[in-house]
């Protein structure tokens, strides 16, 4: 049956084609619009439809999995015939759709709400719609209706802008402003007093508060104190009522106390009679764009670029070293701010470690000498003037002649502190290996001695010695395996304590299952090995009655999981603190950094006690 319309189909199709949007690839700006629509309706399906003369084509969709459908099954094609938004609470109750193959299956489409995408000439070229596989007999809310209408206008605005760009390049800034405005929204509904009545997940992601925390609260909770005192909310709501919208860009607050620069808009919500019943506030985080306008952003972007490019900082100088130019990364490595004046002697040489200063200056002078190689490759240490931190720097450079004949000394610097620390750590582990071998031989000697003293016959002594040596070998195998993969903490404890021979009733361990990283597992094994060795030599395991309690637990501190580990000796000889710090003690201190925490070794009169507190996430990585 033909339906009369205020427009001609040929005009409508021609208008659609003029936007040159059909069969274009997916674009994030349109995808974000359908995501926002689906979230606003809590619906599984949302689509930006464009109705051509032969098909229904989707510029963006959520929950469909296709880019087009034939017109004979299109629900949206019927929406073009409506003067306003089309809402179908239950498609099976609507004779237009009851037999539609998209509706009739058990999981068919049961609910539809679509807003027309109209050209400035009032020609409907498509819809933005949401669908559900369950009927919604209650229809939609004013907020949802306004959301679809705003998004439909947004789609039309983007299409208009795309077409305008083809005609006039100078509109690019305005195009991007409109194009970007379709993403990353926090949507809040308010009553007429400015109290929150709705709060979407985008607002939670943006500001931190959940919907439960914000319902009924004054929305000025996320305003700055200055804006609250200045009555900004009242002005925004007043503009929304008098002019249809109140827009602004300003600082807003998050739950954690931080601030962000937001582009916001307040729109009135009305009932069916047009009487205001509340407001819709849309907020978008524009902090990055705002900071891009600031002079500091240029320096920050330069620093990030250098860090991304393998951690290199760039520098250049005249061969006379009278004019130096450093990027942000180089300034950071040498302890200078973005606006500090740069001088070879006062800015560079003075920051080099005194032991490396003369060598660095000599290397540079040799490169720049008339008979020099012109190639710099040197390493030196710097000392921060703020916290005294020492860094290892690798500098490379070369004399370079520009096309205009000007000669410049250019190069890069790189922070190699971690590489140096890793090298030092490898040396420490090598020293520890030698130390471990000596300790192992001492343990073997103790096993043999104690076994001979306790055995009644040579055969009994032989069996005891054989069993204990086998246990020692098993412990070494366990440590070797866990040094390359994650390891259970219980196995680490058992392996590290078993190295001193079976001690039934002498060593007690208890704690939850925890998988440690290879680095942390190796460090904990070494630490427990040292504690066991000392206990066997001088502490609770050196007699026949002492024992050791090993306990660990996971606690929640400041929102993070924390491992609390303890070693406590009981029943051993009276403890006398050592007069000097031996290699074992120094090794324990050095290995604590691999456990990403703090540790304390106490020589209590009734027994040695060692406690470790570590960030669980860091030692389980």
Overview of this protein structure:
The protein has 20 helices and 23 strands. Helices cover 39% and strands 26% of the residues. The two termini are 68 Å apart. The strands form five sheets. A six-stranded antiparallel sheet has the order 3-2-1-6-5-4. The longest helix has 38 residues. Helix 15 runs antiparallel to helix 16 and helix 16 packs antiparallel against helix 17. The protein is an alpha+beta fold and 621 residues long.
Which structural class matches the secondary elements? Answer: alpha+beta
Number of helices: 20
Q: Termini distance?
A: 68 Å
Radius of gyration in whole Å, from Cα?
Answer: 36 Å
**Major pleated sheet:** 6 strands, antiparallel
Number of strands: 23
Q: Strands across the major sheet, in which order?
A: 3-2-1-6-5-4
Q: State the helicity in percent bands.
A: 25-40%
Amount of beta strand: 25-35%
Averaged pLDDT, please? 83
* C-alpha geometry: extended
Low-confidence stretches: 171-183
Task: Give short descriptive properties of this protein.
621 residues; alpha+beta; six-stranded antiparallel beta sheet; five-stranded antiparallel beta sheet; 39% helix
């Amino acid at each position: 049956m033909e339906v009369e319309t205020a427009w001609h189909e040929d005009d409508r199709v021609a208008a659609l084609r003029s936007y040159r949007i059909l069969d274009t690839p997916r674009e994030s700006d349109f995808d974000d619009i359908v995501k926002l629509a689906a979230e606003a309706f809590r619906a599984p399906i949302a689509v930006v439809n464009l109705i051509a003369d032969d098909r229904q084509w989707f510029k963006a969709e959520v929950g469909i999995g296709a880019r087009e459908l034939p017109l004979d099954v299109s629900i949206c094609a019927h929406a073009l015939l409506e003067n306003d938004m089309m809402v179908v609470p239950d498609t099976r109750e609507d004779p237009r759709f009851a037999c539609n193959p998209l509706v009739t299956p058990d999981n068919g489409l049961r609910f539809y709400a679509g807003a027309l995408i109209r050209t400035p000439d009032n020609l409907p070229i498509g819809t933005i719609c949401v669908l559900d596989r369950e009927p919604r007999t209650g229809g939609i809310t004013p907020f949802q209706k306004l959301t679809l209408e705003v998004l439909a206008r947004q789609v039309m605005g983007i299409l208009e802008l795309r077409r305008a760009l083809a005609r006039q390049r100078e509109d690019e800034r305005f195009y991007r402003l409109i194009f970007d405005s379709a993403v990353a929204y926090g949507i809040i509904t308010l009553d007429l007093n400015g109290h929150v009545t709705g709060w979407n997940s985008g607002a939670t992601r943006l500001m931190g508060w959940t919907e439960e925390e914000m319902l009924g609260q004054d929305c000025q909770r996320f305003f700055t104190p200055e804006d609250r005192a200045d009555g900004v909310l009242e002005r925004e709501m007043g503009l929304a009522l008098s002019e249809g919208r109140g827009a602004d860009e300003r600082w807003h607050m998050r739950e954690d106390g931080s601030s962000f620069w937001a582009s916001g808009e307040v729109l009135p919500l009305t009932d069916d009679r047009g009487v205001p019943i509340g407001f819709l506030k849309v907020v978008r985080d524009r902090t990055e764009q705002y900071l891009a306008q600031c002079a500091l952003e240029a320096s920050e972007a330069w620093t990030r670029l250098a860090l991304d490019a393998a951690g290199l900082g760039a520098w250049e100088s005249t061969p006379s070293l009278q004019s130096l130019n450093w990027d942000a990364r180089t300034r950071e490595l040498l302890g200078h701010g973005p606006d500090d004046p740069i001088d070879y002697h006062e800015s560079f040489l003075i920051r080099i470690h005194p032991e490396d200063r003369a060598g660095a200056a000599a290397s540079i002078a040799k490169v720049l000498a008339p008979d020099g190689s012109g190639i710099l490759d040197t390493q030196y240490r710097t000392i921060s003037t703020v916290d005294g931190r020492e860094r290892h720097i690798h500098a490379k450079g070369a004399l370079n002649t520009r096309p205009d004949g000007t000669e410049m000394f250019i190069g890069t610097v790189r922070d190699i502190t971690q590489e140096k620390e890793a090298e030092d750590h490898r040396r420490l582990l090598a020293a520890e290996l030698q130390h471990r071998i000596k300790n192992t031989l001492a343990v073997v000697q103790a096993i043999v001695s104690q076994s001979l003293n306790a055995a009644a016959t040579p055969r009994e002594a032989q069996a005891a010695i054989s069993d204990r040596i086998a246990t020692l070998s098993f412990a070494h195998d366990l440590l070797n395996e866990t040094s390359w993969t994650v390891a259970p903490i219980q196995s680490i404890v058992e392996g590290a304590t078993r190295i001193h021979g079976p001690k039934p009733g002498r060593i007690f361990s208890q704690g939850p299952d925890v998988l440690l990283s290879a680095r942390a597992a190796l460090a904990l094994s070494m630490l427990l090995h040292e504690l066991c060795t000392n206990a066997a030599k001088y502490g609770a395991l050196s007699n026949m009655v002492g024992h050791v309690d090993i306990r660990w637990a996971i606690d929640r501190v400041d929102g993070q999981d924390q491992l609390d580990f303890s070693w406590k000796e009981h029943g051993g000889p009276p403890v006398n603190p050592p007069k000097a710090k031996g290699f074992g003690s120094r090794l324990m201190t050095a290995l604590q950094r691999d456990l990403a925490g703090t540790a304390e070794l106490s020589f209590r009169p009734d027994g040695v006690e060692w406690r470790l507190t570590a960030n669980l996430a860091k030692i389980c990585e």
